[in-house]
Specification:
Largest sheet of chain A: 5 strands, mixed
CATH topology of the largest domain in chain A: Sulfite Oxidase, Chain A, domain 2
Shape of chain A: globular
CATH architecture of the largest domain in chain A: Alpha-Beta Complex
Number of domains of chain A: 2
CATH class of the largest domain in chain A: Alpha Beta
Number of helices of chain A: 12
Structural class of chain A: alpha+beta
Strand content of chain A: 25-35%
Oligomer: homodimer
Radius of gyration of chain A: 23 Å
Distance between the termini of chain A: 43 Å
Helix content of chain A: 10-25%
């Protein structure tokens, strides 16, 4: 992509009057694309409400996100997932400052790029959609997904792992916008800010901003949905969810990290043995996987053939291997991976299993193309300097938990969460 | 996949009691998976209606399928498409015998495999979901898409090309079910039948049935939607849409093709010069592409930079190359293809264009990995033995039209359908 973007650099030369409106140009949004016009008709709106024109789900399908804890957070129903795409309507939601997403009119929305740049820029949505775009399938996962404190009493995979989802995202590379604006010498970070009332902000190092970050307006072939940031969000592949700023309206180029409250308190990784040290700038999510069928709360009707299936993902790159165990980790077999593989995306794995009717402990373990292997609970504990029993009692919130997960199948076929097996 | 399936052959050995219920076992549907149980709660249903739990589109987004002609057919709004996935709700619809899809209770639905097999089989949906599955991204296109008779007066790409859509489909390989049933010597075709009142049927040669056909229950990460065949449809990659039988309930293994009315009259390809000959068994769709932006009915607000983008697909395999012309085919430039490439799938292409404000004719031309190149209108005409003017007047319906498509950009920026440029 870098060579592509170099080739495209300053592509706005002929159309410079459009993009380089400057910050004073806020009211200059006179451009209207035919796209906006075709979308704007009342006829289309009426038709969208007609099931013949906007195909609804069957009334027998009512898989939904479920509320976990208090506040406006809900989890993807991974136990119902098939393939690698999460339906946009079922993408997990964590909102920090509100119960409902803001109701943004895309014709009024603007993205501002300013700070340490040669040419501050302001874009309408229509202008962004004219620019060179890319589409990529990526997961987004909350750093708190599967945190032991909140998840140890959970029953289903929706409750234990439902803060991860995967979509085909479409947008403009942030690097392209930054190059158009002209990043000044000494600029080392960007600060992204949301248009919602909470003004959620996130600092991102320039190196990542120039690498693979998207300013995304499309999700699974249609506009990003309101809960996911309509009309515009940041997509920071492989980094914790909080970095993927929704309702994006401002990108400031700066020479330091601005650690906002949410970054410095809520999202640092405290060492649970309380030696006073914390891991800052630990943004990338490690290799992780979970079996979605059979999973907690389900029941196998009897011995015989089952396809064990689940999802694996890593912030570090492409999943190269998933192994499955049915005996609590004593032996492992290679699962099949859905092809083609996508970088920093949910990867579906499948493994054929003949259940003999005896008690079984199902686990999955993934490896990414950097060679990083999903750790066991024992390995994570050693890394943190605690015993495995620590996780059963602690009230310390732990982010970036990516340990191998266990589901216990009892002889009656019921499947139970066995987080610390 | 073949080696995979060979390895899995007779996987039901231990669970044979489940699958080999035989045709008399229709009432034996006593198995209930936990999945069905978790889906069935009224609480989940209530939550699904709550926008916090089932994320709706923005009220500013009303892109919808549009009715074309008479009857229950509607087109995908390709002018609004981004990436390669079509939202399930916007997948094109052609229904032959009804205005609304049947309202099938998946707990009551059965798939029967019978005819020239050693072991007739009957499956509940829960049984199918336990079996080895695959997920693949494939397009589905109606053979009549872009037929000149219906499309020459069309204005938008939704009207000219909207009978093609692309989804991640999940299901069981038909080959696996056929191997379980045990195909008898001399069997050369399968006949697939729908559960709807029209009992739509389609004959498919055994060679294709054993190659890459899916019995699909998943679409874009959730159950197939009613308009697309809930709870079960056939997915016949690269073949005309009519072969992808929706609401699938019966697969009969036979020793000849049963040419039903819809196959023998509506879907044969008549030679338009009326020499009395017809092409039968012409099922595979050729290489085809179209520019979705800028496209008919849209208006460019002024000269300057635009990303030309569109979709290419081929029933023959993977798209390897897309070229774009802005001068009506006198010169061509290679477009960028969205990675990774998927076989028999929509492939997004992109090309950077600086419009000088003069009249332009935009075209795209694709090549698949078999070396097949999308033909020009002149080449198609020559193949049919007619002049290019023929298409402007004929009332003969032509299926499998895959000619290079032209959009004319006038100096005022408006974009017009120029089907026969």
């Amino acid at each position: 992509m870098n060579s592509k973007e170099r080739g495209r650099r300053r592509f706005l030369k002929d159309g410079a009057a459009m993009a380089q409106l400057g910050l004073a140009g806020l009211a200059a949004g006179t451009l209207r694309s035919a796209k906006a016009q075709t979308l704007g008709s009342e006829t289309a709106e009426a038709r969208a409400k007609d099931t013949r024109f906007y195909g609804e789900r069957s009334r027998f399908v009512n898989s939904a996100r479920t509320l976990v804890g208090t506040g406006p957070a809900s989890n993807t129903p991974l136990q119902d997932s098939v393939g690698i795409i999460t339906p946009s309507s079922l993408h997990y939601v964590v909102m920090r400052f509100r119960d409902e997403p803001p109701d943004i009119d895309p014709r009024q929305h603007r993205l501002v790029i300013h700070g340490m740049v040669d040419r501050p820029l302001i874009f309408t949505m229509e202008e962004l959609k004219r620019m060179p775009s890319v589409s990529r399938i990526h997961f987004v996962e909350c750093a708190g997904n599967t945190s032991p404190v909140e998840r140890r009493s959970a029953k289903t995979v929706q409750e234990t792992h439902g803060w991860t989802s995967c979509s085909e995202w479409t947008g403009v590379p942030l690097s392209l916008l930054l190059k158009e604006a002209g990043v000044q010498k000494g600029a080392t970070w960007v600060v992204a800010q949301s248009a919602d009332a909470g003004k959620h902000t996130k600092s991102i190092p320039m190196e990542k901003a120039m690498y693979d970050v998207l300013v995304a307006y499309g999700q699974n072939g249609e506009p990003v949905r309101p809960h996911q940031g309509f009309p515009l969000r940041l997509l920071v592949p492989g980094w914790e969810g909080v970095a993927n700023v929704k309702w994006l309206r401002r990108i400031q180029v700066v020479d330091r990290s601005y650690m906002m409250k949410v970054e410095s308190v809520d999202y640092t990784v405290l060492r649970p043995n309380m030696d006073g040290k914390a891991l800052w700038y630990n943004f990338q999510l490690g290799p992780k996987s979970v079996i979605t069928f059979p999973s907690g709360g389900q029941r196998l009707p009897g011995r015989g053939f089952y396809e064990i299936t689940g999802l694996a993902w890593s912030g570090g790159g492409t999943i190269r291997r998933v192994e499955v165990s049915t005996d609590g980790g004593r032996s492992w077999k290679d699962a099949q991976l859905q092809q083609p593989l996508h970088r920093i995306a949910h990867t579906r794995f499948r493994w054929d299993w003949n259940w003999d009717g005896e008690e079984a402990v199902l686990q999955s373990r993934c490896t990414d193309d950097q060679g990083d292997v999903q750790p066991s609970v024992a390995q994570i504990s050693k890394q943190w300097g605690v015993t495995t029993d620590f996780w059963k009692e602690t009230e310390t919130r732990v982010n970036h938990w990516n340990a191998i997960h266990s589901w216990k199948v009892t002889r009656d076929g019921s499947v139970q969460n066995a987080l610390f097996s």
